[in-house]
Design brief:
By secondary structure, the chain is α+β, with helices and mostly antiparallel strands. 41% of the residues lie in helices and 23% in strands. The strands form two sheets. The protein has a five-stranded mixed barrel with strand order 1-2-5-8-7. Strands 3-4 form a two-stranded antiparallel ribbon. The radius of gyration is 59 Å and the shape is elongated. About 33% of the residues have low confidence.
């Protein structure tokens, strides 16, 4: 009787012990597995984060820095250097002392003559019915000014020439024919009288001709 009563108790105790052991083992195993899985997951997450963030970022920065720095600095610098090489500007030869561009430093040839100016030396009268006089002139060109002069000389060459001047021509003069450095109108006879009193002066005049080929305008050029 007592034995039969003890069996259920013993069975219950054994079942309880077994259940406790199973629960304990599951609890331990579950905790360990969870911790292991969590650790593994955290490690994997950390590794993934580190691999995705740190390494690519560093790689891209280096590439950009190298590409931009080297490409811009080297490429642009080299390209600019090759496209626009520096070259020394040739020096312009200095004009000789006392000279001016285009001035005559020796007796000019006919190709060098000034086409609008000449030097007047004498005046020859013609018959009154012609209404003209002859100017005895020489052609030339402006020379190079000297170190001790204020202006350039008019250099003549060749033989004397004669050119008709109309008695009614428009004539202006400056010093020494007049007492002014600005052109003043004078009569043809006044010019004749002064040139007759000062032959071979070689004063320079600018001239214009009329339809008849004679000079109808004569203006003295002021020379210091």
């Amino acid at each position: 009787m007592k034995v039969n009563r003890l069996r259920p108790v013993v069975g219950a105790l054994m079942a309880a012990a077994t259940l406790t052991a199973v629960l304990t083992g599951c609890e331990k195993g579950g905790s360990a597995a969870g911790e292991t899985a969590a650790s593994a997951g955290a490690a994997k997450s950390a590794g993934t984060t580190a691999g995705t963030t740190a390494e690519p970022a560093g790689s891209v920065a280096t590439e950009t820095s190298t590409g931009t720095s080297a490409g811009t600095s080297t490429g642009t610098s080299a390209g600019t250097s090759k496209a626009k090489p520096s070259a020394a500007t040739p020096a312009t030869p200095a004009a000789p002392a006392g000279s001016a561009p285009g001035c005559a430093d020796k007796p000019p040839t006919p190709d060098d003559y000034d086409p609008d100016e000449f030097a007047l030396f004498r005046i020859e009268e013609l018959p009154a019915d012609t209404g003209k006089v002859n100017l005895v002139i020489q052609h030339g060109a402006w020379g190079c000014p000297g170190e001790d002069t204020d202006g350039a000389p008019f250099v003549v060459s060749g033989e004397d020439s004669r050119w008709a001047l109309d008695q009614a021509a428009y004539v202006t003069a400056v010093t020494p024919i007049t007492d002014s450095t600005e052109n003043r109108r004078i009569g043809v006879q006044e010019l004749i009288d002064w040139v007759d009193a000062h032959p071979d002066s070689g004063l320079v005049f600018r001239y214009e001709t009329g339809d008849d080929g004679a000079i109808h305008r004569l203006e003295q050029v002021f020379t210091p």
